[in-house]
Amino acid sequence: MTRVRVTAPRAGARGGAALPVARSAADSREAAEESDAGQVFVRSLIRSQLRLGLVVAGGFLLILLGFRLMLGLVPGLAASKIAGLPFDWVLLGAGIYPVIGLGAWLYVRTAARNEARYRELAGDK
Amino acid sequence: MNPALGLAAFAAVSLATVVIGFYGLRISRTTGDFYVASRTVRPWWNASAIGGEYLSAASFLGVAGLVLLSGTDALWFPVGFTAGYLMLLLFVAAPLRRSGAYTIPDFTEARLESRAVRRVTSVVVVLVGWLYIVPQLHGAGLAIRTTTGLPAWVGQVAVVAVVCVTVVAGGMRSITFVQAFQYWLKLTALAVPLLFIFFVLAGTGAPAVADAAVNPTGAAPAGPYQSISLFVALLFGTLGLPHVLVRFYTNPDGQSARRTTLIVLGLLSVFYLFPTAYGLTGRMFAPGLARSGHADALVLLLPGRMIGGTAGDLLSALVVAGAFAAFLSTTSGLVVSLAGVISQDVLGGSVRGFRLAALVSAIVPLGFAFMTESMALAGTVGLVFAFTASAICPVLLLGIWWRGLTDAGAIAGMVTGGVLCGGAMVAGSLLGAAGTPSWLAQPAAWTVPAAFAVVILVSRATKSRVPRTITRLMTRLHSPERPLATER
């Protein structure tokens, strides 16, 4: 891992509002990305990442809602015991975390895959 | 418990914090080191540090207290605190890292090319930070009073003093190590006493004195509106917390920002099992603590209550150490990020300016803490989340994902969200807990959509103000960095 020299805040403070990550080697690549053809790929990458985020977030909220409805609608379920602990506590106090973790893991994997595909399309090796 | 042990625990944590802070001092030299540890922090360290910084007084003391008071209704807090990080991962982590900005005002200024937006964002960020430090100090006061009998201000002043020393001495490089250490300390401090309590309970076979489903104070369960509004606040509030966001700049690239967040989610999930378990144990075996108004001190009192003797005293001391780790880590994280904002905007961004700004950022909330009374810790922090969710989150999310955002829309949205939610908070504190209707007590469900709507409508009305460089900006936020090997 290389050590990157960072000089950002002062550049911004002097009036230029450029994002501070600009590096000279990036110039030609940026030109290619800002061409009309390059932008098609960029826009499609942004759309797929946003869609992916919304799907994972929506899925998580649906599962959470499902947990709540299940506890509310199935009589006696909330009060039943698992290893001596009330079921509603086990489900909402512990069972929801693996769902969050799984969603996050799937997201990280798929987002990286989207980016790899973008790299291929944009001819970036 | 034994007051001397409580003091010794606090002294030991403070000493460890300062020593690790000074160890870090030797390797932090440049301004870059001072602000963001030169972005060379490894994901595991960084994730532990994020966890250490995020788990505040509300998580360490407040969650267990609220679970004791209101049972499964209070489980929205730990789940929401964790799910907020999921939202951060899904919508913010990688693009924010790729923006290359140091602070939220850096980001909004760069995204919208407007100094005015920067100034408004800075004001909101500083406000959020101060609001968030106050409950940490209340927690410190509560812990000192409960465990040693000293007046609350002693704990508050001590926390601010230790934070000032570490931050002024080392900046964020040493803060990273301090925070990472404090995550593991907090986890140990909750886990070990709880295991002992379980052994004792299993050994004696003592029956539960109360049903877990019954609220010990007889409080009515929360309605669906309150639960949903709280969950909205926690989901979206995490996105705008300045001390959380500043941590993402210490990742080398967008993908590692995602990996770090994934590890953080795991660390938080493990951690929150414990406050929940404390709350449940308290409901079943010590419901009297809720009736005597000591709910927030449950975590501190339970080991002594359930075990007693020298073992109980030692375990209580461990919990006190963990609690002070929570106050110190969150406060220092907030002070670092506030100092970053204040020093860049007001003091020119030098190391000396950063140190001065750090002092200001720590001492002002100390004044607030002196003037205000401590309420339920998790509830107060929930309101701060509602404020960030209303004031910062809409601009941040739309700035990352919507090309149509304009500077006018961003300012209008931040002001609307801040005024609506801040107004609800002020009205709620004037009316008192009993007289506040639930739509004022939990404002996020309407203030967040209102802020989003204002940002979008005003941006639409001022379409001509969309920055001309929007194509380049969006490309940089969302396209992956080149692999390092191809860099010349």
Structural notes for this entry:
The complex is a heterodimer of chains A (125) and B (488). With 125 residues, chain A is mainly alpha-helical. Chain A contains four helices and two strands; from the N terminus they run αααββα. Chain B has 488 residues and is an all-alpha fold. Chain B has one domain (3-374): Sodium/glucose cotransporter, CATH 1.20.1730. Chain B has 22 helices and no strands. In chain B, α14 runs antiparallel to α15 (309-346) and α17 (377-391) runs antiparallel to α19. Chain B is globular. Classes of the chains: A mainly alpha (125), B mainly alpha (488). The interface between A and B is large, with 64 and 63 residues.
Describe what is shown at a glance:
The complex is a heterodimer of chains A (125) and B (488). Chain A is mainly α and 125 residues long.
Detail the topology: elements first, then pairings.
The complex is a heterodimer of chains A (125) and B (488).
Chain A: H1 8-13, H2 27-34, H3 36-73, E1 81-82, E2 85-86, H4 87-121
Antiparallel strand pairs in A: 1-2
Chain B: H1 3-25, H2 31-36, H3 43-54, H4 57-70, H5 76-91, H6 93-99, H7 104-112, H8 115-148, H9 152-204, H10 224-237, H11 242-245, H12 254-285, H13 288-291, H14 298-306, H15 309-346, H16 351-371, H17 377-391, H18 393-401, H19 407-435, H20 438-441, H21 444-461, H22 470-478
